[in-house]
């Protein structure tokens, strides 16, 4: 298996969008790439007194002209939801904005002029952000993330053709997972969902963890099982898929790209956890230590964070991993992936904490 990657032009991305965003919504509709929302730091970083900005713009990319153009707006500025393809468009599910997490779901399509058409869809049963989502036919699944603003293991589905409300399914085992991946695979006339990656920042009872176990949900049986681990094929060490993107290939393989470095990110969230739950600190002392940590952590050069350059495939039949490409083009976190067949787009994302890229990567899989 080989990957062919190209960078799309950034022409037409103006003002705040030319800095790039993380955690946008996206869709491929009629071979048109559509991107909406997302978040960035347009000025100063948080520890410098800046604030994260959320956006409502919906833009599409024209392959012939190599330019982006504005085709609409979200009802509210938002990011950190999931984008799920449907046979007649897509769903943009949940997310959050500067003040709250969201229950809203939008069905997305394009009209004859290429403008975005957004129709309301049954709301989620709870607010959800930083979760995973995917579809089997037109049944949509969402798992994990923050649910009612707390890390959770809950799992829901809805039939996008006829469903009027979301149905709760069995929770996945193990710790809660923020920013995991959910990938559909169909084998031997059975449908499965693979849950990979994600992290849990800890609470008063549990330490931070980066999930290494690969979970598989049998849609027919309604049961979860552990089916593998995130283990590098050469070193035997665990790696991270937190903040990564993934897609199915030939109903056998799962292609995974990007994500944070396991060791560096776990050290960061553990340091923050230890500050937060240190009972000997005053409120002011805790705030000061968090600020000092952010000043050091957020100002390192890009290469120090070691975001994953490896494009890996997981073989769902053998349970093995293989790195098929090493490239800086996909070494990002918080990107959004959309795909059709063997073509895919890795939409923007961040190169390091606080620093986004406006560049979208178009990829093609050659088997």
From TrEMBL:
Question: Looking at the keywords, is NAD present?
Answer: no
InterPro entries xref list: Cycl-permuted_mutarotase (IPR019937), Kelch-typ_b-propeller (IPR015915), NANM (IPR056734)
Enzyme class, top EC level, equals isomerase
Record key words, sorted: Isomerase
GO MF annotations in UniProt: isomerase activity
* Record-listed E.C. numbers: 5.1.3.24
Known PANTHER family for this protein?
LD33804P
NCBIfam families in the record: mutarot_permut
Can you say what this protein is called? N-acetylneuraminate epimerase
Q: Which organism is it from?
A: Petrimonas mucosa
Name of encoding gene: nanM
